Amino acid sequence: MLARCSSGALRGLEAQAVTVEVDIAPGLPGLLMVGLADAAAQESRERVRAALRNAGLKVPLTRVVVNLAPADLPKAGPGFDLPIALGLLVASRQLAAERVEGVWSAGELGLDGGLRPIRGVLALALAAHRHGARALVVPAANAVEAALVAGLRVWGADHLSEVVTLLRDPWPARVPTPPRALAPAPGARADLAEVCGQHHGRRALEIAAAGGHHLLLVGAPGSGKTMLARRLAPLLPPLAHREALEVTQLHSVAGLLGEGAGLRQERPFRSPHHGCSAAALIGGGALPRPGELSLAHHGVLFLDELAEFRREVLDQLRQPLEEGELWISRARQRCRFPCRVLLVAATNPCPCGWYGDPSQSCRCGEAQRRRHWGRLSGPLLDRIDLQVVMRRPEARDLGSPYREGTPAAGETSAVVAGRVAAARQRMERRNREGLANGQLTGQALAGVVAPEPDALRLWERALSQRRLSARGAERVLRVARTIADLAGQARVSTAAIAEALGYRSFDRVD
Length: 510
Known about the structure:
Elements: E1 2-11, E2 14-25, E3 30-34, H1 39-42, H2 44-54, E4 63-69, H3 81-91, E5 103-105, E6 108-109, E7 115-116, H4 121-130, E8 135-139, H5 140-146, E9 154-157, H6 160-168, H7 199-211, E10 215-219, H8 225-229, H9 241-253, E11 269-270, H10 278-282, E12 283-284, E13 289-290, H11 292-295, E14 300-303, H12 311-315, H13 318-323, E15 325-329, E16 334-338, E17 342-347, H14 366-374, H15 378-382, E18 386-390, H16 395-399, H17 413-430, H18 442-446, H19 453-466, H20 470-486, H21 494-501
Parallel strand pairs: 3-4, 5-8, 8-9, 10-17, 10-18, 11-14, 14-17
Antiparallel strand pairs: 1-2, 2-4, 6-7, 12-13, 15-16
Helix pairs in contact: 2-3, 7-17, 7-20, 19-21, 20-21
């Protein structure tokens, strides 16, 4: 007796349809699995047997062959437990074949028959909807996530016996809990008003948020680099539904969404340690998974202690930062992960951290400082639009919150976010794709910059005097266009060009 059930296998960010074929034939009792399954999927043989027995269902005491088709697609994880169990029930005539027609299923089985959550359910639900599935059966803990796909009927269950009851019903009517958002991460509501002084850094933060420009903060220990970086995400506009769905899908594929979680509404903020590997930062593995770069999609990637990262790791950021997507190639597959991020990096000016500080002398030699900056390649720095030197705040700035009758240190995040949103609206009206200035192609940028004659002459003079690269020169125009948008100006003024040039401090490190 041959039975077929439908499921899906993750291939990067997407899921691909998989047909689970179960054949029962005369022979010695045993279960053989074929179809390029990994160790976790192969171990489903023992989990399925025990789950069927403990759920009060019959285990076929004969030869069983399970094929996961297509055979050349790698299959990973325990999510095939449920479709294999349903295939065995259909093949052994304990469940009618028509009850599983058009029904996709996925889930890990416990030995007692309980269903445990798996990763990548949102991608699986999207694939099921794309292939016209009439329903998707998943563990109850994944039902809210799967229900994010409009137009797809989702059945959530806690136990294998419950799934069998649902499928035997003429038309199950179980509806999962409505989707809910994840709670904001700790520190996500940190306010810009808490930052004392640092007017130059605050201004750079506003420009970065408005135009989607990458930002480098260089300063001595205690100058507020990390504090500023952690206050960037609240300045960004709220996630659109399409963006929130992409973010949720990425975190689901990475297994970071959590049980019972729904649509993510907060922009991601990822801050990997400087000792992380290239696979952890960029993504990879035998069966590729997203790294920190993709997990920060539509949000902020903060690289603290930038000069402590290995150079070969940082250099792999160059192309993804430029294109907003990452392709990971393996012998059997090629996977795409989106990574349109706003990069914020922070580093000390030298190994001891005090080079250029007016109150503390540097203990490093010239060779040490050159080695420190040598870890950052010129092409990587060239892709960072805003390069800001930060000074430690003065004592009067630090004491202002404790001084009676002193007004707030600066504008709140809500006020700055309002200006950022207004600037973004101006950008969206200028281009059909609704991209920020930092994301425009060179051709699209040429059509929107509109510099005044004096501003254009200043930019050309700076190019020849400072020997900026073509990319660096274009970055200056992008930043100047954003400055003009924040000011509500139709054309880029000389002041905007001059301010933008002030943010190119490290194009050439001597």
